[in-house]
Amino acid sequence: MKTELYKKLNQSEIEAFGQEMEALRLEIQAKLGQTDADYIEAIYRKTRYYEILGRFFIHFSVEPLAWLSGVGFLSLAKIINNMELGHNVMHGQYDWMNHPELNSRDFDWEHVSDNEQWKFSHNYMHHTYTNIVGRDHDFGYNLLRLSTDQQWHPLNLPQTIYTVVQALLFDFGIGSHGTTVEYAELDPAQKTNAQRRAIGMRFLKKITSQTWKDYLLFPMLGGLSAPKIALGNFFANLVRNIWTHSVIVCGHFTEHVETFTTTEAENEGIGGFYLRQLKGSSNLSGSERFYMLTGHLSHQIEHHMFPDIPANRYEEMAPRVQAICEKYGQFYNTGGFWEQYASVWKRILAYSFPDPIARQIMPAA
Amino acid sequence: MRTKKSPAAKKMLKTLLIDESWADFLAAHIDPMFTFSKPMAKIVRIKPETTDTVSFYLQPNRHWQGFKAGQSITVQARSNGKLLERMYSLSSSPDRRYLRITVKKQGLVSTALHETWQRGMVVPISQAQGEFCLPADTHTPLLLIAGGSGITPVYSLLQTLRGKSQKAVLLYFNPTAHDVLFQTRLERLAAQNANIQVHFLYTRNPANGQPTTRLNAALLESLGIDARAVLTWLCGPASLQAAGRELWAQWGISHRLTMESFQIAARRPQESSGGAAVQVKLTRSRRELKLPGERPLLDELEDAGVYPRFGCRMGICRTCHCDKERGQVENLKDGDHSGEGREQIRLCVSRAASNLELNL
């Protein structure tokens, strides 16, 4: 049933599809310059000012409304730092700028996840092996069953509850996922206890610096207001977790997203690569501000096709990508936030049961 | 830019786990000159020297660690979103409060400086670097040869020789009389100091019906200069350097010649042939690239969509330092070939001479 959405292409059509996408990528890459540099620097300043405002209001508020606005600003600061700034900078999208801080080697984000571990599991593993079951650790995060290509097990039954917990603790989820992936991808000969400790230590280092900042340094600076400040920072982290989780699951876990086996992805060529990225991703439609707040993961398809093009360009590339998809009879998976988010929960619920029941809940399974 | 650390403040920040760039960001709202360890400078005066050359007078902040005459600093400029760096010799004397760099508009960075630097702006600078400094020997007479904007470090050297007994002769080459920098100041230096002599020489179109001159044995003879009896400092364009290098080598006294330049002397093709002769494995990003192996690795990597950090792009500032795990590279500055094993290379002056593994 799902193959009707994506017209089956022959070899030469797949190649032509790939070439058109490549041409688009090179076209946009040639245009990169001052506007992109100005954009990301403005985002950098924004995260800093929001953090200053957020912490200021949390610290100096004398009644709940002001405190809440502080939590709001701090949440925004963390969200933008993690998504529009961090995720995109660490992808190397702005490396060409030769900026001393906003480059993929030096930038460290306000997140418990160690940036080197994240870059490995995300930039390399997830983006190279997108949606290949067994290779893409991000598909289900080794926690959820989301495809018929994954065997059902009774432990999948409560996975809706796992998802809720994961959403609330998403920063730690990503952080520990990074350590799992780093260890899992080691050569068997290197899988020693010493390595496990070293990998864990890197994660612990990050946990320490983030915990210090939000739950020790700033509360201590507030003296007797320490509890109010720690609580405010806690809620800001929670809001960031829930928001980022929602946006990210909408990228690969919506109803019509497809998975691939290793054999299917073998020798896929450039055209096959673009097709896999298209079929494995889904977009969110909304306003420009919404796009920025999602770190342009609203344009998951464009991001997966062109991970090192600065994310601010995805909006202009989207209509072109859509046109090429239409030309080749390929479904362009997009929808409003609530629509896509609901379909994610449907998918999680469906696959918590064995396939026959799954298909009752979600026909596209 | 490599900057030296100011220990106490930095240690305090590190203990508190506060990011230095955050601290600088906050401090900048009070005064951009206030940083925790980064040297910054305020542009206090902009003086046009010739039609295409401008002097910038800079007042450094408290992290500036001073300089020796003949040294240079690295400054930054933005060009189409990209941050570029260039080194410029300090033409001021070390005993002054201000620093002066004299920039000729001839490339991306110099043009950006001319167009964007305004009075009152605070810009990041590096600490002083370079070895184009006066010798410990204060008796042997000095021969200073400068060409065009190469006068900048030489003028700084000359100023420190004021009132000293050590003799110095300056040969200052320029295409025409219009290109001469610091003419009045140099003439005054020569007039007020018995030990300093200045000769203005023109290679293309001199004034007053003088003949054109080049750096050669005849010129030195006519001026009564014996290269073997002096220590020579030379700073100028590639052609002047080549002339100096050849002459001094001919006389077997290359060790008496010290040179400075901010252009890579090695000629390299600007366009790629598009070949794919070497395989380069990037171990950290897990990519494998096929590169032509003709131009510096930095250029070829950028063509392939990989953007390592860079600075001066001429093998001096070490920003592009990278661990080569395996393979051989050629240093385009001096033609040396590296070993096959693990060593640190500068991507901007290294050419892939074999298949490589880089820690990138």
Strand content of chain A: under 5%
What structural category characterises the helix and strand content of chain B?
alpha/beta
Query: How does CATH name the architecture of the largest domain in chain B?
Result: 3-Layer(aba) Sandwich
- Gross morphology of chain A is globular
Across the major sheet of chain A, the strand order is 1-2
How many strand units of chain A? 2
Q: Assign a percent range to the helix content of chain B.
A: 10-25%
User: What is the name of the CATH topology of the largest domain in chain B?
Assistant: Rossmann fold
Question: Which SSEs are present, and which pair or pack?
Answer:
The complex is a heterodimer of chains A (365) and B (360).
Chain A: H1 11-31, H2 34-60, H3 64-90, H4 115-128, H5 159-168, H6 170-184, H7 193-221, H8 226-252, H9 262-265, H10 269-279, E1 283-285, H11 288-293, H12 300-305, H13 314-327, E2 334-336, H14 337-351, H15 355-361
Parallel strand pairs in A: 1-2
Helix pairs in contact in A: 1-10, 1-13, 2-3, 3-8, 4-6, 6-7, 7-8, 8-14, 14-15
Chain B: H1 7-15, H2 20-28, E1 40-48, E2 53-60, E3 72-79, E4 82-89, E5 99-104, H3 108-116, E6 122-124, E7 142-147, H4 151-160, E8 168-176, H5 183-192, E9 196-205, H6 217-222, E10 231-235, H7 238-250, E11 257-260, E12 278-282, E13 287-291, H8 297-303, E14 321-326, E15 329-331, E16 343-346, E17 350-352, E18 356-358
Parallel strand pairs in B: 7-8, 7-10, 8-9, 10-11, 12-18
Antiparallel strand pairs in B: 1-2, 1-6, 2-5, 3-4, 12-13, 14-16, 14-18, 15-17
